[in-house]
Write a structure and sequence with these properties.
Strand content of chain A: 15-25%
Shape of chain A: elongated
Radius of gyration of chain A: 24 Å
Radius of gyration of chain B: 13 Å
Strand order of the largest sheet of chain B: 2-1-5-3-4
Shape of chain B: globular
CATH architecture of chain B: Roll
Number of strands of chain A: 5
Helix content of chain B: 10-25%
Number of helices of chain A: 4
CATH topology of chain B: Ubiquitin-like (UB roll)
Number of domains of chain A: 1
CATH class of chain B: Alpha Beta
Structural class of chain A: alpha+beta
Distance between the termini of chain B: 44 Å
Oligomer: heterodimer
Strand order of the largest sheet of chain A: 1-2-3-4-5
Order of helices and strands of chain B: HEEHEEEE
Distance between the termini of chain A: 67 Å
Largest sheet of chain B: 5 strands, mixed
Number of domains of chain B: 1
Chain lengths: ~140, ~80
């Protein structure tokens, strides 16, 4: 009798674990779906903000070039989660990487759109550069990063 | 929607975790303009930077005051270094 009670308790506990795991999976799936939809919406906004050349570069290589609104410097914005802005020299090589992004839990494409808008405007480029952390570049060819 | 109606509608894209929220206003409707202006001012106070253009295909420039004749405005949250 005692063995049966113990088995019933164990069964109840396992059923509880399975139920919790199922709920966690459902929650995770729901969040993943929302996240994917947000990324899709953000991507459409970014594509809408790019000119034809930038859109082509982005679709083909996952990055696009922007000319600084005030400095006329050339930047490359890459599809990456961090340190994704490169300041390029006249020879096309990376002088250093910049890390600055809009606050909040916004999709990666929105981050890129924000960086584009800030850099291409004369007044906000200065603000972006003042906020950005500079990271030295390693000596890889620029196209590999 | 015909072209003439479309030309008189402005859209504000507000970046957030959903990709962005959209707020539309009819350029000839004072009530809708006031609501859009209120949202704009609230977001600017919260630290957002606004970029807008008279025509949606034009290059967006930083703006500090709401212009209801702009076809598209993008509100970007505060920039921080990482």
């Amino acid at each position: 009798m005692q063995g049966l009670d113990r088995a019933a308790a164990l069964f109840k506990r396992v059923r509880g674990w399975l139920h919790a795991a199922l709920l966690a999976k459902e929650r995770w799936d729901r969040q993943a779906k929302l996240r994917a939809r947000a990324e899709q919406r953000a991507r459409s906004l970014l594509l809408n903000l790019l000119n034809d050349e930038q859109r082509y570069e982005f679709e083909a290589h996952g990055f696009f070039y922007v000319t600084g609104g005030g400095s006329r410097d050339r930047y490359r914005i890459r599809l990456d989660s961090a340190v994704n802005v490169d300041l390029l020299g006249e020879d096309g090589k990376v002088r250093y990487h910049l890390c600055a992004r809009p606050t909040g839990d916004i999709p990666m494409y929105d981050v890129m759109a924000g960086q584009l808008l800030f850099l291409q405007d004369r007044t906000t480029e200065t603000h972006f550069l003042a906020q950005a952390k500079k990271h030295v570049t390693l000596s890889f060819p620029p196209m590999l990063r | 929607m015909d072209k003439a109606t479309k030309l008189h509608t402005g859209v504000m894209n507000i970046m957030d975790e959903t990709g962005h929220r959209q707020l539309n206003w009819n350029m000839s409707d004072a009530k809708e303009i006031a609501a859009a202006r209120k949202t704009f001012d609230r977001l600017i106070l919260r630290g957002h930077t606004a970029f807008g253009a008279r025509h949606s295909t034009d290059l967006k420039r930083a703006i500090t005051t709401f212009d209801p004749t702009m076809e598209e405005v993008v509100m970007v949250p505060r920039i921080v270094g990482g």
